[in-house]
């Protein structure tokens, strides 16, 4: 019959029209500012710097090695190394970044910086509400803005952060055992001067995170 | 009391005219008749844009506009402010005068068509003896303004769009007029007011609308198809094709002129819908005899909104036709059906009333419909295309 297909189409659209008022499952739209979809764990937006403990400056894992700066394909990372040293997450004396800037208007979220970092210091964030009315300053993140705690890292990527924490704890234990062995050897050897300066500060700064298991 | 409520606008106008000296009364009377139309129909346009976006949204399982005001009701106001504040760009090579006049002509032609539409009992701006003729004459001015827009913009897209639009509008104007001829044959008048009066009676509770006769039903369907094509609405929205000619003949228009085109297109749609109501759906008369206490203008607008919802529903359902399909439908199906429908109306007129008349007329209308539909459904043979190049 002529017009059969038209009638079929009209019933289908009518069903859609009335169905969208009856059944909520037809309306797939998420009304963004009020409603949000739950974040998937593998989501990533831009990098951030992880710190251990409460003080972001003291606990920053980054040692200013500048590998990420060199590897970054769009060259959006700028690092200035410090002159002095302070103990890192494992307890070794390291440099730290005096300046660490990421221009997220240039960053392409490739995650290469995360992959090359030997210190588990830079990780991918999931925050995407980053729009700003300041085109340059608002999108150039400095060290303070980039620093986020290990607890935060554990909440956004629990699986990945758990593995990282376990690995760090293992490294720390190994380093401590090594230091202890060295200290024992020194103690055994007569006339060893000074105190074991390597192990002592390590136990102060990252004390909380030494047993930092995923929460 | 009911009578007074029905005639409230007419009485108000007469009361207001009482304050005017006799010499100025004809002019004031005209102005008082025109102003409500100039307010009511643009308002309906605003409501329709909201209704359309909401309806299409729901058909596609979306929410539609819901940010501006409750249920997005202030969306038309936001749209109006936006289009008023936008920059009005005129191409350097455009014919400035014609480019400026085209949207004005379209909008004014669309408004002129309302002059003969009876939107209520005793509520018509002018009761012309050749009202239907006037309506179609004014309707064809739209084609002129479309071509003015396409030609003056000096852009190949707008010119092609205008040519498409003209080809389509002229093709469908013929069946549009022929579909309404049956009503003129039966009513014996070209005046819209007397056509409505002919349909105002009731048998039992059922109205004497022309759509409830075989020729009226066929005529109504043909009229509505042709009206859809006339107002460039989906599935006949060929003049604007995003993928081919972008916005068609009004591609070089922006800001308020574009809004005027939009307004004119919608007003044209309301006017042809209003004509369909006048010709086939009994104008302002109530659908059942015991509902006559509801004022006549409310019935007119209720029918109009129903037809608009039908247009939106069709738009949300059907994909666009190809240009050749569009022309085939016009010339191979709708035009012959409109001619046959005139024959049906003649048979109806000369046969004595009864069941036999119904059966004969329905058969005479249905048989060619089925036969012609075979022609439309004819399977096209697929073959390797051969090209000929100049040596």
Q: Beta-strand level of the residues of chain A, as a percent range?
A: 5-15%
Gyration radius from CA atoms of chain B, angstroms: 23 Å
Give the ordered list of helices and strands of chain A. Answer: HEHEEEEHEEHEHHHH
What's the total helix number of chain B? 14
Q: Helix/strand-derived class of chain A?
A: alpha+beta
**Which structural category do the helix and sheet elements of chain B fall into?**
mainly alpha
N-to-C CA distance of chain A: 67 Å
CATH topology of chain A: Alpha-Beta Plaits
Strand order of the largest sheet of chain A: 6-1-8
- Given as residue ranges, the uncertain stretches of chain A (5+ residues, pLDDT < 50) are 195-215
Largest sheet of chain B: 2 strands, antiparallel
Helicity range of the residues of chain A?
A: 25-40%
Low-confidence runs of chain B (pLDDT<50, min 5 residues)? Answer: none
Number of strands of chain A: 8
Word description of this protein:
The complex is a heterodimer of chains A (215) and B (391). Chain A has 215 residues and is α+β, with helices and mostly antiparallel strands. Chain A has one domain (42-189, 198-215): Alpha-Beta Plaits. Chain A is built from eight helices and eight strands; from the N terminus they run αβαββββαββαβαααα. Chain A has helices at residues 4-22, 67-71, 112-116, 143-146, 150-156, 158-188, 199-202, 207-210; strands at 47-51, 77-81, 86-87, 93-94, 97-103, 122-124, 140-141, 147-149. In chain A, helix 5 (150-156) runs antiparallel to helix 6 (158-188). Chain A is elongated, with a radius of gyration of 26 Å. Chain A starts with a helix and ends in a 5-residue tail after the last helix. A two-stranded antiparallel ribbon of chain B has the order 1-2. Chain B is globular, with a radius of gyration of 23 Å. Chain B starts with a helix and ends in a 14-residue tail after the last helix. The model of chain B has no long low-confidence stretch (mean pLDDT 86). The chains are: A alpha+beta (215), B mainly alpha (391).
